[in-house]
Amino acid sequence: MAETRLESETLGSAGMPLTQKRESLFQDAFRRLLRNRAAVMGGTIILLLILMAVFAPLVALKSFEVQVLVDQNKVPEWVLKVFPTMQPYAEISNDYPLGADRVGRDLFSRIVYGARVSLAVAFIGPLISLLIGVIYGSISGYFGGRVDNIMMRIVDVLYAFPSLLFIILLMAFFRSTISDIQPGTFAYYVSKLDENMGGMFFIFVGIGLTAWETMARLTRGQVLSIREKEFIEAAHTIGASNLRIMFRHILPNIVGPLVVAETLAIPGYISTETFLSFIGLGVNPPTPSWGSMISDGSSVIRSYPNQTIFPALALAITMFAFNFLGDGLRDALDPRLRGTQ
Amino acid sequence: MGRYIARRLIYMVLVVLVVSVITFGLMHAVPGGPFSREKKLPAETVKVLNERYHLDDPLWKQYTTYIYNVLIPHVTTTPPSNSLMDDHMFNVKIGSVWIRWMNFGPSYKSRSRTVNDIFRDNLPISAQLGTMALIIAVLIGMPLGVMAALKQNTMMDYFGMGVAIFGVSVPVIVLGPILVWVFGVALKWFPVSGWGAKPPYLLGFLPSNYNWDFFKFAVMPSVALGLGSSAVIARLTRASLLQTVREDYIRTARAKGLHERVIITRHALKNSLIPVVTILGPLFAALVTGTFVTELIFGIPGMGKYFVTSITNRDYPVIMGTILLYAVFLVVANLLVDIVYAYLDPRIRYD
After folding, report:
1. How many separate domains does chain A show?
2. Looking at residue A266, which CATH number applies to its domain?
3. Rounded alpha-carbon distances, angstroms, from residue A181 to A174, A195, B31
4. Is residue A18 part of a domain?
5. CB contact under 8 A, A173 and B181
6. Which terminus of chain A has a smaller tally of CB atoms within 10 A, N or C?
7. Do the beta carbons of residue A260 and residue A326 sit within 8 Å?
């Protein structure tokens, strides 16, 4: 009894200045981040994109799925000026700000709604990969020895897997299993959930299942370097449990590199989703995704370049924004790493 | 070093075997078989087909047969035939005996081809594309990184890092269509799709025509694919060189009055290249997977199509062949990188 009180008191008194110092470190980092113009711009664009995705029905004005067949491939006048090669055959209609696709759906509305998919992947991808990767990596790094050896060999083997092919295999597995599942089972509800999310759920699972390996390696390395420090030894001496040491003492010290690594990994998740939708294993039609729009458009790129170029630009802007923010975060949290990967 | 390589080779074989087991299990767990169609085939036909390809055997037996056919060299007196079940990658005649190795099996989908045919016809094209993209990545990335580091915090630095950010932010899927439209459709400098090299290939994969007919097809896809990697190389080169020029031995070299160019090329550059070399392995692997997006966008008849369609078609031998090929490729690339690493940095000893 006396011992536990001693422990909590020691940590209580020592914990206060520690947390304060940590906050000031992050405040300091935040100030540095705000001074970085590129990062602020990236952050602003991401905020705008989030607003656009959340309030998509207000921004888009038209439906993303209603097919107006008489308006197939219509383009507004200004697009003709930008893409002069379209002149001979394009039909003009200024009803569509960016034009209509080959089944007469408004491109602009589809791009606006498509932001939902990309942003969802950008935020849920890191969550899943952090969750699995940090738990896996910290167990491996914390316990070390044989456990570490076995767990890291497993990661090595998964690394030899072409992750994109692994995702394709998983997606083929998920997508084709859906059709013959009995109602009432767990798998049935999962497939219903996926259906209601327009096919996004399985994309999250696919990306999450392949992206955690890098996080696990990073976490393990960080944990290994912190584990031998004196304050961990001190925590052991006063009888803190493994879990407590892990969550109270080690994790707060390695959060910085993990956040930076995840932010820099986001463009990768977005392009994975785009690729999956591009080859037809991503979102279910008619849910719009920039990848499926690029794929649909690239077959008619000679005649209607606007159908490919506009979603491609939307994707590029998003990727730029996340890269600028990620670079800025890294510079702010660890100035020594400036300019590295 | 010899012992290290031997140990690594054994480890590599193990990794590839595990990858093959996982792939085999996963692809058979996916519902539907190679012969389930929208319009159902007659039951007898499916039965005959399953029998022909031994798909009714227990899984472990199918797996061991597959591994046996691929790994174990067959010694026979019968010469190679045209049978699809009997197409080996390597056929060597010694006296009257044939040693034949690596039979990856027939493709279930394209009925007249084997997986080896796909490797022979389509793999060289992907390899050419991947190699050219890597060359472009190194040719753009390294000078950019070196320039940015030597002129740190100048316009040169900002330009270089700007290009790098552009490279990582614009994936093939974005850059590809834009290049196609600008240089293919609007300016008509390059053809929009296709590939210039045709068999026979030198050494199995090098194109035999290094002229405009080859390069006009190769320029756009190689740039689209290589630019992202050049960004990675540029950033890494810059960071590594910046670190190296602050080392003591560089100061020593300056102190003894060496010419700045000699200091950079002889002392700084060689040492700063070490981390860059280590990333070339994974980077090349990424380029090879990246080839299939590029091939789809630029209509190149490489392996890309098979990576994707084999899985949706449940074409088991093609799935196994392509994934194993990639895995072998990745582990070999990593081993080569480690060996080069030891050569570049004499402090590293693997024993």
Report:
1. 1
2. 1.10.3720.10
3. 11, 13, 11
4. no
5. no
6. N
7. yes
Which residues of chain A neighbour B32 with C-beta distances below 8 Å? 176
Its ipTM equals: 0.80
Place of tokens 């035999």: B208
- Report pLDDT for A315: 92
C-alpha distances in Å from residue A50, one per residue of A43, A46, B121: 10, 6, 46
Backbone angles phi, psi at B311, to 5 degrees: -70, -45
Does A77 map to a domain? yes
Q: Which helix (H) or strand (E) holds B241?
A: helix B212-244
Question: Is there a contact between A327 and B165 if contact means CB atoms under 8 Å apart?
Answer: yes
The pLDDT tens digits of the residues spanning B283-306 come to: 877 777 677 788 888 888 888 888
Residues 6 or more apart in contact with residue A25 via CB below 8 angstroms: none
Put simply, the answer to whether B312 touches A301 (Cβ < 8 Å) is no
- Structure tokens belonging to residue B69: 């056919």
Measure B237 CA to nearest chain A CA, in Å. Answer: 9
> Which domain range does residue A249 map to?
25-337
CA atoms within 13 A on the CB side of A213: 16
pLDDT surpasses 50 at A10: no
Q: How far is B328 from chain A (nearest CA, A)?
A: 8
Contacts of B238 in chain A (CB under 8 A): 339
A308 domain residue, yes or no: yes
pLDDT in tens, A28-42: 778 888 888 888 999
CB pairs under 8 A between A and B: 135
Contacts of B321 in chain A (CB under 8 A): none
